[in-house]
Design brief:
Blueprint lengths: L3 H39 L8 H15 L3 H16 L5 H25 L3 H9 L4 H12 L1 H21 L7 H11 L4 H29 L5
Helix pairs in contact: 1-2, 1-4, 1-7, 1-8, 2-4, 3-4, 4-7, 5-6, 7-9, 8-9
């Protein structure tokens, strides 16, 4: 039987999960977007091809992405406590979430910008556009639909990571599923949180796909 107290916990957990997902996505793009642009510009065939700079960013991105998220949470605990004043809970989970999301987003941005037709870039260069103008007025604009598709994918992945953090007291629906479902041997409550997570992912992805379709001239 589901009590009113548990329903209230579900409400709090849902809000906490959305908070972690939205906050992480925003700050993940604050870090990941510039990194993705650098990777695109300095990579092979890029506007500012530079093997050394590309290699440095490529190694950092691959290194962080290769670390399992749960391990990353544990490794970052001492630094998380210094940054937010605690090593567990919703706020503490934001630090490893952003660290994990940023390189993932950087790779998405890099791939999206690489999809832009070289002819469009060359036309802009022929008209005397500098690198900053090409990035802001050509690459990001032309790759807008792909970037939005990538953002939709990133949001779903980040939400999944936020739920995973519940295993180590990260807060949100994952924490509720662990404490009220797993540790108390109540599969019913666990499945309720799972269904809520699935619903949240589908709602966020539906919104992202809808926005992406409206910006895609090919789908009009």
């Amino acid at each position: 039987m589901i009590s009113a107290e548990f329903m209230a916990k579900l409400g709090e957990g849902t809000l906490a999960t959305l908070y972690m997902t939205i906050f992480t996505t925003i700050f993940g793009y604050v870090v990941g977007l510039p990194c993705g642009i650098v990777l695109s510009l300095t990579g092979k065939g890029g506007l500012k091809e530079n093997k050394v700079i590309y290699r440095i960013f490529d190694i950092i991105v691959n290194l962080i992405r290769s670390v399992p998220f749960l391990i990353l949470i544990i490794v970052l605990m001492p630094y998380t406590k210094k940054i937010v004043g605690q090593s567990y809970g919703t706020k503490a989970t934001l630090v490893p979430l952003v660290v994990c999301a940023a390189p993932f987003i950087a790779r998405i941005v890099e791939n999206s910008l690489r999809e832009v037709d070289d002819g469009v870039v060359e036309a802009a260069r022929a008209m005397g556009a500098d690198t900053f103008t090409i990035v802001t007025k050509v690459l990001l604009v032309e790759a807008k639909t792909s970037l939005l598709d990538g953002a939709t994918l990133a949001i779903g992945t980040i939400l999944g990571y936020s739920a995973m953090a519940g295993i180590v007291g990260g807060g949100g629906l994952g924490d509720i599923a662990t404490r009220y479902g797993y540790y108390r041997f109540d599969p019913g409550k666990m499945w309720i949180t799972v269904v809520l997570l699935v619903i949240l992912v589908n709602i966020l992805q539906a919104i992202g796909i809808n926005v992406s379709k409206k910006t895609d001239k090919r789908r009009v």
